[in-house]
Every structure is written in C-alpha cells, then in structure tokens.
Amino acid sequence: MKKNEGITLIALIITIIILIILTAITISNVMNSNLFGLAKGAAENYVQAGEEEQDKIDELTSYLGSENGKVKVNKPRLSDGMIPIKYDEEKQNWVITNEKDEEWYDYSEGKMLWANVMLSDGAYKEKEKNYTDDGTTEIKEEELGSMFVWVPRYAYSINSYHTEMNGGEGTTQKITNVVFLNGTSDKDFEGKSYPREYNVDEMLEKVGQPTPMIVHPGFTFGEEELTGIWVGKFEASMSGTNGNTKDTNNIETNNTPADEHSIKVLPNVNTWRYIAIGNCFFNCLNMSGDNNIYGITKTKVDTHLMKNIEWGAASYLAASQYGNVPTVNDSINREGLTDIYYEYTGKQNYIENVSQSTTRNITGIYDMSGGTWEYTSAYFDNFDQSLAYGLNAFEETQRGIELKSEYTKYWDRYDVGVEEKKVTKENGIFRNHTIWDSGIEGNQKRKDASDERYKLMKNKIGDAMYETIRDYAYYGRIIVSSETQWDFEWLTSPTGTTQNWGRGGYYNGDYSLIGCCYCTYILRGGVWSNTAEQGMFAICTPEGYILRDRTFRPVIAV
User: What does the mean pLDDT of the chain come to?
Assistant: First the structure.
C-alpha cells in the first residue's frame, strides 16, 4: 500500500513566515542599493541612446542622396518643428508631405525644385501631427508656418575669377559651377575629393579664368560640418502688426506665445524693418529659445542671423547650373510706410512673380536681388564705436569695441588695415578720425583705408564678394560736415572718378560700396527704392543702425 505524504499546517505557516522575511530583506537591499534609481537611469539612457541612434540613421540616410535619376544631393535634414511641404500645381496650393515623397524636391539641372519646410508657428504642429502628410492636407496662406529652403552641401568653382564673364552679362550665364557633396564629407557622390581652399595669389595672375573646385565654407559652422543649411525663404517679418515704424520695430523678442511680436518668415506680408543689427542677431538666436512658437528644440539646431558666407552659399547655388540668378525686385511704386513685401515690379505677389526667386519657380529663395537691404552676421574688425549697434554680442575692450568670444561661430570677421584700427576714445566714443579729415590729404587716407579693406577681402572665399568683384566704390572727400551731419562723395577705385551709388562693382553691375573707418557691418541684396542698389551680389557697408530700408533673414543649422 502507497504511503500518503503532505505538509502540515505548522510547516506551511513557518514557510510563509520565512518567505515574508526573505522578501523584506530583498526589498531592503534593493532600496539601499538604489536599484530603482539605477533602473530609472537605465531607462533614460535607453531613450537617449535611441534618439542618438536615430540621429545617426538620419545622417547616414542623408549620405545616400537622391535616387531615381535625379542629381544626388544630401537629403534635407529635418528637426523638431519642421514640416515638409511642396507646392501642388493642380491644387494651386501648398500641401504637407513627408521626407519619403519623391516629388518633395529635385535639384537636377532644368528642374531646380528646392526642398521647402514650414515650422510649427502656423496652424499645423509637427509635435501634434494635426495633419496628414500624404499631400492631402492643403495649407491656406494664413495657415502657413515660417518657411525655409534647403541649400545642400556642395563644392564650387567661379567660372570667371575676380571679373565679369567674357561674352555677356551674368544674367544670361552661369557664374558658378557646383558639385553636390556626400554627407558632411569633402567627397562627391562618385567618391571624388575636393580641397577646402585654393591659392588666391595664383588666381590673381589668372583673372578671368575659372577657380579650382573647392568645398564651400558656408557648410562649416564653428567646429561642426553640415550636410546643408535651411535658409529663410523670405525676408523676416513681424507677427502681430503690419506696421513698420521706428517706435515699434527695434526690439528684442523671445519668440514665445507671450511675446507681442515674434519673427515670421512668410509671403505677402511686411518685412521687419527699422531694426538695428543687434536685435536682428538676437531675435534670430531666440528662435530656438525656451517655449518658442516654432516647435524647435535648442539642443538640436542653431538658429541665427544669416552669415555673409551663408549668403554666398545660397547665391552661388542660385548662380549655378542648379539655380537661376533672380530678376530684381525694384518696385519703385512703394510709398512711405505703406510699402509691403509683395509689391514686386508690377505689384505682383510671390506666386505670380517667381522670376524673383533663386530658381525662378516657387520653390526658391525670394528677394535676394532687390527687396530690402539685408543685414548679415558679418563685420569689419576695426574697433569702431559703430560695432556697438551689435548690442550684447560686442563689448568694450582696451582696444575698442570687439566681438565677444562666445559668439564667434555666428559672425564672419573681416580684417582691416593697421591705420583703420587706430581708434581713440573721446567722450566715451571710439573713432578713427580719418573719417573727419577734409581736403586732399583726408580723401587720400580714406582711399588708402578702403584699398586695404579690399586687399584683405581676397582672403575670404565663398562669400560672393572679392571672387566676383571687378571694382568698388568707397567714401571719398567730405561734401557735408558738421557736428550733427556728414556726407561723402562716393568714388570708384582705382580710377578715383565719381561713381553714382557705387554702380558697376560686380557681375551685372551690382552695387558695391566698401566704405571705410566707421562702416562696420555688411548689407546684401540691394533695395527696392533705388534701381542702382540692387543685385544678388550687391554689397553695402553701414554702421548697423535702424533705417526703413534694412531687414534681415534667419538661417537654421541642423
């Protein structure tokens, strides 16, 4: 007979008590060892690792470029807040798409469809995904978020160095030749490598000949190499008002919902004018600040005022086989404070006047030729008091006014001659007194100072200045001078003959004023109100203060 075996009630109770004791000891050890904290940290690290892995995947994906017979370019790199959009010709409207859409962009010669995105400061929010991304969500003009255009990394060559091209005007010829590069490398999609610079002195012996093909420096941002940059599609505008007055515009904004005014980059609205360069600079930096309206994450992007080298990157692509030099926006019918962005020549809006885009279709960048003078993040390092218009980006030192080191990557620095740097401080102002000297001797000093600027400019490549210049204007003899007012005759070097408004300096005769001494910042593109001050390669050197014909354009580095 089989013996029945079991567990007594007492044994069961003892077993349960032992298990409870062991469980308590285990929990105590876990708490004391911070195992929960370690688990939480591991979870956070896992999420961060996933985000970093996705960033690497995005970067590797960009290396692949475009397929299906299109010219290969780095795929537009997206970040938080960015929504891909394309213009649907049948619907006659912008629609929301996705980065896998083969019709989103095509940079091929003859196509020239540049990639566009809008930020989440419009009706649609990237974080909320309150839209479909298959091309069925149409965007009304009043629903658009701030718009940006992708300029992919490339190498370039100037087809005619330091002079206009032989055989015709630049409007009918390609000024540059471009080869798109793979990822953040210096190689094209066939594996060919390109250098970072060329010998400028050797090129000066070959004026009019093509330069070597080199990597454009506009895709190096501080210590970081970029696959491309997002350039504001339009000149900056101001939310919350259609006015442009001295009393309301020269402000710094944090671009948050609580701010009365924020930066917008939209069509058919007033440009943001009457603003000093310092507020232009900080307003663009603040686009990625805390609680911004664009959906941007500060740790993932750098928003900033367009640098002069980035102006060069956009304009050289436009002047290449993959773009078009835009016609000028010279609407001389604007009147007073009522002048608005879309009063192009013939009072047409941006859809009707695509010739003023860098592609001469709706996908390009507008108003780089005419429109309003645009401040760029670039300065002549002459210690002059006018650099103080850069506000907190600059500071007073023993030598004069200088850029703060923490902002170095955001500014293009241009050197000047020794004499121009000889500033003295009187009544709290650093000035080089050459600008006040009258007569033949003073005029010669100003010419010498301008000549030194011009000679030193040759060391900057890719900025659409010295490489394409053939002559320049400078401030000559004083024709009006008093304690409250001064003006100069503008002359062309080296001939010294009077030159109206600096005309005749660049391809197509674009405006070219180098200035001297108290002229510290760099404007680009020209202005609608004067037909002589227009052109994609136009340059002017002002002090940096507010005027009705000056604006700015933001750029996003991702």
Answer: 84
- pTM exceeds cut of 0.70: yes
- ∠ CA 230-512-401 to the nearest 5 degrees? 75
Average pLDDT over residues 401-413: 98
Identity of residue 140 = K
Cα–Cα distance, 289 to 256 (Å, whole number): 8
Contacts of 395 (CB under 8 A, 6+ apart): 401, 402, 404
Q: What confidence score (pLDDT) does residue 145 get?
A: 98
Within 13 Å and on the Cβ side, how many CA atoms surround 371?
38
Tokens matching residue 33: 């060892």
Please spell the DSSP secondary structure of 141-152, one letter per residue: GGGPPPEEEEEE
Q: What are phi and psi of 104, to 5 degrees?
A: -65, -40
* Conformational region of residue 408, where left means phi above 0, alpha means psi within -120 to 50, and beta covers everything else: alpha
52: left (phi over 0), alpha (psi -120 to 50) or beta: alpha
User: What pLDDT digit, counting tens, does each position of 308-358 carry?
Assistant: 999 999 999 999 999 999 988 766 544 444 444 444 444 568 888 898 899
Residue 56, Cβ density class (10 Å: 0-12 exposed, 13-18 middle, ≥19 buried)? exposed
| Residues 490 and 474 sit within 8 Å (Cβ to Cβ) | yes
Within 8 A by CB and 6+ apart from 467, the residues are 158, 161, 162, 211, 461
